[in-house]
Amino acid sequence: MERLQKVMAHAGVASRRASEKMIKEGRVKVNGAVVKEMGINVKKTDLIEVDSVPIVQEQKYYFLLNKPRGVISSADDPKGRKTVVDLLSGVEQRIYPVGRLDYDTTGVIILTNDGELTNQLTHPKFGVEKTYIAKVTGLIDKKPVIRLEKGVVIDGYKTRPAKARIIDVDSKKKY
């Protein structure tokens, strides 16, 4: 069983907050009865209607994309830059990236409409490790690697300690 507003959000009706507003306004019925209070749990077999229109659960979609350089890891961009969602132009479902890769970074990223999976992969409490391999120009001083291993402060928050190591050095090319 899941909370009504969560089921509505997963069906693409509205965000959870907007769904809560619809419930308070008396626009939602469960099995024919108007529901106005929060915290109602529903089953998959329950008939949920919004404004007398039955909702249908959204099919889950999963895409694995090799993000190219020059594309942002976002569903939309107010600056008009190309997004990872733009690369899947034939997909009509609402999808979004799981996590982020920098604009100039290439690599594999997951796109989905599965909010539960997104939460399990991105929320720190689940402890999912991410692996990044960076090719850099110049020789690396070990001090920044040690800093990563202790955790660094970004935007006022200290990151968790990272496992960091130098895989290879090409002393001829100095990278």
From TrEMBL:
Looking up PROSITE patterns in the UniProt record yields: PSI_RSU, S4
Extract the SUPFAM superfamilies matched here: Alpha-L RNA-binding motif (SSF55174), Pseudouridine synthase (SSF55120)
The cross-references to Pfam families, in alphabetical order and at most eight, read: PseudoU_synth_2, S4
The cross-references to InterPro entries, in alphabetical order and at most eight, read:
PsdUridine_s_RsuA/RluB/E/F_cat (IPR042092), PsdUridine_synth_cat_dom_sf (IPR020103), PsdUridine_synth_RsuA/RluA (IPR006145), PsdUridine_synth_RsuA/RluB_CS (IPR018496), RsuA_PseudoU_synthase (IPR050343), S4_RNA-bd (IPR002942), S4_RNA-bd_sf (IPR036986), TruA/RsuA/RluB/E/F_N (IPR020094)
Keyword Hydrolase among UniProt keywords: no
Domain named RNA-binding S4 is located at: 2-59
Alphabetically ordered keywords of this record: Isomerase, RNA-binding
Q: What family does this belong to?
A: Belongs to the pseudouridine synthase RsuA family.
Protein name per UniProt:
RNA-binding S4 domain-containing protein
